[in-house]
Amino acid sequence: MSAYADTSFLVSLYTPDANSLEAASRMRRISEPVIVTPFGELELANALQLRLFRRELLAAQTRAAYAAFRDDLTGGIFVIKPMSDDVYAQARRLAQRWTRTLGTRTLDIVHVACALALAAESFHTFDDRQRRLAKAVKLNVR
Prior knowledge:
7 helices, 5-stranded parallel sheet, single chain
């Protein structure tokens, strides 16, 4: 079984917020490496810097959060899988089919398209729009 983690899940896992306990609890139940794309890693790095900009975290906390993520990559808890060109074709199809009814944003669509293209069997998110889209395309949303 494979799992995909979006940025909302990763941010909650590595920095304190309302979903941090749930993210940690889910990670304890996942036995396989969790898929993250280079896009997801970039989005995590930017989200951490945004929390610094908003004064929600200190610089040392953002460095520690990113270092902990990198340690988990090295330890095999997460695995970076590349995004193929299929992701963009899949994302276009999702946009055409679902945006008008779900109000999904581009980055939401890209995360769901990545999970589909990488054949993830579960999708971990705290984002409501992503959750609705992932459920609509029959991903096992956590």
